[in-house]
Amino acid sequence: MNMAGRPARQPGRAWQAGEALYIPHMDQAQFYGGNFLLALPGMQDQRFDHSVLALCVHDADGALGIAVSEEMEGLGLRELLESFDIDASKVPDTPVLRGGPVEPRRGFVLHSLDWAGQDMMQVNNLWGLSGSLDILKAIAEQRGPSRYLVALGYAGWGAGQLEEEMTGESWFLAPGNADLLFDTPARRKWAAIFAASGVDSTHLVGGAGLA
């Protein structure tokens, strides 16, 4: 799996001040932004075993998704905020998610739409995606979004790569849902989203079939 290409900027560290996300044109009639990608048991790339990705960008130039099903060991939100000299005393020490293998030190926040910063990208009418320090400061000062997930890294595809993978036995496409995204614990998301789509994940076997 060639996970490369998006977003175009290459910052030296996560959340560089003033850094804006690349926001492409999205044709919702043809592409799948705003949906979930669930890794099927037959996927060869073990980095994505039982992964759930919130697909935020999908257009003719490629795709970008944030993995939301794996917590990073030994890293919580307070430590991350403090690494940017942000007072973290008022925020819960929620886990930081492993967002994907590309640019693993670059930060993103998936969040509810009751907060909007200058670089926010709205994904359908479901969630926002932000990638600057502004949202971290807002969260720390309790003026940020009511629901959010903080992740480091992302999964990216070049033009046509995701479409090719989706014709094989790698991904299951499920409708995006803000409640499932924000309210379901990371390790339970994979089974919960399959269940919401009418699929019993305990019956899935390699090759994308059912036992």
UniProtKB/TrEMBL annotation:
Highest taxon of the lineage: Bacteria
Protein name (Swiss-Prot/TrEMBL): UPF0301 protein RLDS_10590
Pfam families membership: DUF179
Organism, as annotated: Sphingobium lactosutens DS20
A Gene Ontology cellular-component term: cytosol
Positions of transmembrane segments: none
Entries under InterPro entries matching the protein: AlgH-like
Coiled coil ranges: none
Protein family per UniProt: Belongs to the UPF0301 (AlgH) family.
